[in-house]
Amino acid sequence: PQTSHLAVVGSREMPKGSKENIENFLPELFVLFLQMYPHASLSVVSGLTGGGDAIAHWTTLSQMDKENRLHALGITATSINHVHKQGDPALYKALLSVDQAGVISEHEPQKDAIKPQYYDRNRLTVWLAGATLLYGITKTTSGAMHAMSLARWLSRPVFYLEGTTSKPVAAELDKRGCVGLESPEEFIDYFLGLRR
């Protein structure tokens, strides 16, 4: 089956309620997507630091089906055998222990994380995905906003979950042509338009 890749990117420090919003949004999105495309699969691509990225992965892992149509792909800013101090070792292990999940790194084993590698991770995350969903962002200068800039530069659609970002972030996202979403149905409607 054809696999669609969706980058789900959030900040480490999220506004109140963001975790609950994405934990409700993603399972509904998965059900709708897999119903609309019975012969396709969906892969969630995200980083491996704590906060928004980890929540996206844990939510995806909790919803994996027996038909292997839902996948999780973690992009690490460090080497494949090194969990960064801000990462989630249990998540890293979970992604490597499930057939429908995995971890990707561009870096040699045992190399310590340095800031430029986070930009590499963001680049790889949005490059692999056909679309990006942002949530839980409070600052206009952050790794999540960098990922948005890269996705827009690649002419990929960027969505954000309304009510989970600060007002300055929402204003900047609107200015940059990102689409605010209130429900998974809105994403599916937009996605159907892209695939026609």
- Rg over CA atoms, rounded to whole Å, is 16 Å
Shape field: globular
**What is the strand content?**
15-25%
Query: Total number of β-strand segments?
Result: 7
| Major beta-sheet overview | 7 strands, parallel
Q: What is the straight-line distance between the termini?
A: 18 Å
Overall pLDDT level? 89
Number of discrete helical segments: 7
Spans of at least 5 consecutive residues whose pLDDT stays below 50 are: none
Structure classification: alpha/beta
* Helical fraction: 40-55%
Major sheet: arrangement of strands: 4-3-2-1-5-6-7
String of helices and strands: EHEHEHEHEHEHEH
Report on this structure:
The protein is α/β, with parallel strands linked by helices. The chain starts with a strand and ends with a helix. It has 7 helices and 7 strands, in the order βαβαβαβαβαβαβα. Helix 1 (about 20-35) crosses helix 2, helix 1 packs across helix 7 (about 185-195) and helix 4 (about 115-130) packs across helix 5 (about 145-155). It has helices spanning about 20-35, 50-65, 90-95, 115-130, 145-155, 165-175, 185-195; strands at about 1-10, 40-45, 70-75, 100-105, 130-135, 160, 180. A 7-stranded parallel beta sheet has the order 4-3-2-1-5-6-7, sandwiched between helices. Strand 2, helix 2 (about 50-65) and strand 3 form a beta-alpha-beta unit.
